[in-house]
Design brief:
Layout (H helix, E strand, L loop, with lengths): L3 H11 L6 E3 L6 H14 L1 E6 L7 H12 L2 E6 L2 E5 L12
Parallel strand pairs: 1-2
Antiparallel strand pairs: 2-4, 3-4
Protein name: RNA-binding protein
Pfam families: CRS1_YhbY
InterPro entries: RNA-binding_CRM, RNA-binding_domain, RNA-binding_YhbY, YhbY-like_sf
Length: about 100
């Protein structure tokens, strides 16, 4: 689990990122979880956009993704989710 200070730090880092994944009508599936895991390993910090035609609400989608990938939710704001997962091979972010 992330502390409040760590979440603030990650939110500040994620502010300039643009979403690289979109969750649409199909929702969260195994293939998406696998791709997110690969992307989290490469980048550690991701923004995900939840499209309007998605049947789940943003917080449910965030929980499903976090559970599937083992990542921490740094923030959900509007239809955007910010995820963090420490990389095993490619560590770039040092948490406070």
């Amino acid at each position: 689990m992330l502390t409040g200070k760590q979440k603030r730090f990650l939110r500040a880092k994620a502010h300039h990122l643009s979403p690289i994944f979109q969750v649409g009508k199909a929702g969260v599936n195994e293939n998406m979880i696998k791709q997110l895991n690969d992307a989290l390993e490469a980048r550690e910090l991701l923004k995900i956009s939840v499209l309007q035609n998605c049947e789940e609400d943003t917080s449910t989608v965030a929980e499903m993704i976090a559970e599937g990938t083992g990542a921490d939710i740094a923030q959900t704001i509007g239809k955007t989710i910010v995820l963090y997962k420490e990389s095993k091979e490619n560590k770039q972010i040092t948490l406070p």
